[in-house]
Amino acid sequence: MKTDDLVALLATGAGAVEGNAAARRYATALGWGAFGATLLMAILIGVRPDIDTAALLPMFWLKLAFPAAVAVGSLFAASRLSRPGARLGWTPGALVAPVLAMWLLSAYVLLGAPPSERVELVMGSTWEYCLYYVPMLSAPMLIATLWAMKGLAPTRLSLAGAAAGLLAGAIGALIYALHCPEMEAPFIGVWYVAAMLIPTVAGALLGPIVLRW
After folding, report:
1. The whole model's pTM is what?
2. Which runs of consecutive H residues, i.e. helices, occur in the chain?
3. What is residue 189's DSSP assignment?
4. DSSP 182
5. What are the residues whose beta carbons fall under 8 Å from the beta carbon of 111, sequence distance 6 or more?
6. 150 vs 87, 101, 161, 206, 212, CA distance in Å?
7. How confident is the model at residue 19 (pLDDT cuts 50, 70, 90)?
8. Is there a contact between 179 and 41 (Cβ–Cβ < 8 Å)?
9. 85 falls in which pLDDT band (50, 70, 90)?
10. What gap in Å lies between CA 136 and CA 43, rounded to an integer?
C-alpha cells in the first residue's frame, strides 16, 4: 500500500477537531479539581475561624494572590505542554515572577526584623501542616489535570506532568490558605513553595506513566 493510500485510509471518517477542545477539558478539570479540593478542606480542616478579621488585613489577600498567580502561570504551561511542538514562550517567567516577588518581600521582612525573631518568622507554628495538607488538597486537581492532558497530545511527558502537578499544588495552596493561620511572608515564601513542589515532583513522576499515548 502506498503512503498516500494509507493516509487516506486512516483519515476516512475522521471529523474536524474542535478548536476549543483543550479549553473545554481544562475548564472541566479546573472546576472538578477545585471543587474536590474545597470539599476536602471543608470536611477535614475547615476555614479558619477568624477569617472575617483576617480578611481585613492586606497580607491575607497577598497570601491568596501568591498561589493564584502561580496557578495562572502553571495553567498556561500545562495548556501549552498538552500540544506537541508548542513552545512555552513567556510562561517560565510568569511562574518565576510571583515566587521571586514573595522571596524579595520575605527578605525585606527578615532584614527588618530583630535577629531573635527571624527563625519564628520562617518556621511559624504550622509548617508541618502546610507540607501535609497542601499536597493532600492538590490530589483532586492533579487527577483532573492529568485527565485533561491525557485527552490531548502531550509529548514531553515528565515536563507536562510537572506542570500539572504545579497547577494542582497552587490550587491546593490557595484552598489551604483559607484555613492557614500564618500571615508572614517568610513562612509563605518557604513552606508554601515547598508544599507546591511536592505535587510538582509527583506529577513529573506520573507523567511518563499516565500520559503515554
Report:
1. 0.88
2. 3-11, 21-44, 51-54, 58-81, 91-112, 115-123, 127-150, 157-176, 185-187, 193-210
3. I
4. -
5. none
6. 19, 33, 10, 12, 8
7. low
8. yes
9. confident
10. 13
3-state secondary structure at position 39: helix
Q: How far apart are CA 49 and CA 54, in angstroms?
A: 9
User: For 9-18, 70-79, 173-182, 193-202, which range has the lowest pLDDT when averaged over its residues?
Assistant: 9-18
- For 16: left if phi > 0, alpha if psi spans -120 to 50, otherwise beta; the answer is beta
Q: What is the DSSP letter of 87?
A: -
Cell of 13: 471518517
- Cell 470536611 belongs to 43
Rounded Cα–Cα distance for residues 112 and 91 (Å): 33
Cell output for 168: 494542582
Q: Which amino acid is at 213?
A: W
